[in-house]
Structure formats: structure tokens, C-alpha cells
């Protein structure tokens, strides 16, 4: 009985720390709904063996979907310790660790040079801060797909205004 109470307490503390961390770093954790994630993957024209980067990969749902349904290789960038651990646990449990790697890092510090597709569900202020990095590091022909927020002064190659999905080509 005490063990269950301790586990519940640790989970609650982890949730509180994660929430406070998100507020402090200006990137709240809001998971991409699975139907939107699937639509983003389709719109990005992701091909088998292409390399997808998910900036702020959270629980790994997009990485897992991209690997299982599209045959892609994936890299998640997740700074939050608890989400990093959760996504790695899910990936290992599903036997996808050869296709998916999650790096515990800030996406501002991660190397994006090899990405074919970059996923972003970030705030407009973060998108703006990332634009120079994306422009500098992404190879010609790489795609950036965003949910909810556009990349100001970039022209979307494809878009779905109703779903708020925007695809950009470098």
C-alpha cells in the first residue's frame, strides 16, 4: 500500500516539475492529436528511409507513427527529462529502437544537417527564433511541416488552413 502511494506521489511530482519546466522554457507541452500527426506526415510526402526530425518530440507519438506507417528513420529532440524517458520507453517497448533515436537536447543546439523532414508544433516566437537555424542547416529540398503556427515570411509549399498544417520547402 505504501509503495503505491510513493509511486503516485512520484508521478504527481514529475507532472508538476514537467509543467513548471514547460512554463519556464516557454514551450508548453501540448501533444499533437494523432489524426493531425498522420495528416502532417502525409502532407510532408515522407518516404521510407527518409530522416524525420521532430523538434520537441514529447511522448514520441510522431516518431513512432512515422517509423511504423511510413518506414522512416526518425530523430526526436526532447529536452524534458520525463518526456525523453517516456518516449524512449515507448520506442523500446515497440521494438523501434533501430529506426528511432531520441536525443535529450535543446533543439537550438541539435544538428539538423541530415534531416529530410522537420516537424514543429511550437509557439510562433520559437518558430521565429528557429528560422535562421533551419535556413542555415537544412539541405536543399528538405521540408519543414508546422502545426497551428506559420513560419512568418516563408511561403508555404502546401497548406491546409482548416487543419492548420503548413509545409515549407528549403
Can you summarize this structure?
This protein has 170 residues and is α/β, with parallel strands linked by helices.
Describe this structure in words.
With 170 residues, the protein is of the alpha/beta class. The chain has one domain (31-169): Vaccinia Virus protein VP39 (Rossmann fold, 3-Layer(aba) Sandwich). Helices cover 41% and strands 18% of the residues. It has helices at residues 2-24, 34-43, 61-70, 81-93, 124-137, and strands spanning 51-55, 73-77, 100-103, 117-120, 143-147, 158-160, 165-169. Strands 3-2-1-4-5-7-6 form a 7-stranded mixed beta sheet, covered by helices on one side. Strand 4, helix 5 (124-137) and strand 5 (143-147) form a beta-alpha-beta unit. Helix 2 (34-43) packs across helix 3 (61-70). The longest helix has 23 residues, at 2-24. It is globular, with a radius of gyration of 16 Å. It starts with a helix and ends with a strand. The mean pLDDT is 87.
Any idea what the CATH superfamily is called? Vaccinia Virus protein VP39
How many strands, what sense, and barrel or not for the largest sheet?
7 strands, mixed
User: Can you count the beta strands?
Assistant: 7
What is the topology, as strand order, of the major beta sheet? Answer: 3-2-1-4-5-7-6
The shape, in one word, is globular
Order of helices and strands: HHEHEHEEHEEE
Q: N-to-C terminal Cα separation, in Å?
A: 56 Å
How many domains would you count in the coordinates? Answer: 1
Helix content: 40-55%
Query: What is the SS-derived class?
Result: alpha/beta
